[in-house]
Amino acid sequence: MKRTFLALLGVALVTGCAKFPDSPNGNVGARLTFTLVVDGKIRSGAEAGSSGLPYVYMVALRFSNEANPTTQGPIPVIAPPWGNGFVAGNATHYVWWNPLTSPRYGVFQFVDPLLNNSLLLGAPADFEEVVTGAKRIKFTLQLNQLYPDQAAREALRSMQVNFLTMDRIPTGGTDKFWDALGDGRLPNEINDFILISLRQNGTYNNSRSGLIEPSGDVPDPDLDLVDWQIEVQLS
Fold it and tell me: Computed from CA positions of residues 226, 96, 154, 75, in that sequence, does the dihedral angle turn out positive or negative?
């Protein structure tokens, strides 16, 4: 299932090829800001009783040259066979907040169609440090971080997005605790994701989408997604 956000009142739709101001190294493309909010707190592993292991918080992305791609976007891996343990469907990139690494936010690109191997591209262009007790992660990607070639950037028309939380990235066992877009208690909403236009400025969030991500669909509040936001700012 997908949710599509291609127009907002008061926002002009950019048609044809995206136009950006010139810069010494070519345009840098859109700025994309993502915010993920949980009901409890972002668990870093430093909390009492957490055994030093953080929870996993990710944003999975799939960029497309089509305005309305018909192929499935990123969806959570929720049962064996685990594959990479966190995302299935179609994804091109993901951002992982991991307090065990430096920097704590990593931007990754998948390098095989089965999503088993990925390449670390670096850190987001901007990000918010997560303090003890914080409820959200927030970061900004500059599109040229993901697509250095200007022609490739300007060909992009949309991105499919999913927000993922989980207690672990499994390589064995039979289950894990997780949340993603949609109501995880309902089988027809497990494979939910959203589609965002890259040809217009806009701010998209859970309330404007009709609250597609409910609270209480996972028992652990530190995994329970309750809000999200995506801001697209064209250069």
Answer: negative
CB-CB contact of 224 with 218 (8 Å): yes
Give pLDDT tens digits for 146-181.
Answer: 999 999 999 999 999 999 999 999 999 989 999 999
Tokens at 22, concatenated: 């010139």
Separation of alpha carbons 75 and 224, rounded Å:
16
Q: 68: which DSSP letter? A: S
With b meaning 16 or more CB within 10 Å and e meaning fewer, what string describes 57-76?
bbbbbbbbeeeebeebbbbb
Rounded Cα–Cα distance for residues 107 and 93 (Å):
7
Please give the Cα distance from 41 to 54 (Å, whole number). Answer: 11
226 within 8 A of 205, measured Cβ to Cβ: no
Domain ranges across the chain: 2-6+28-233
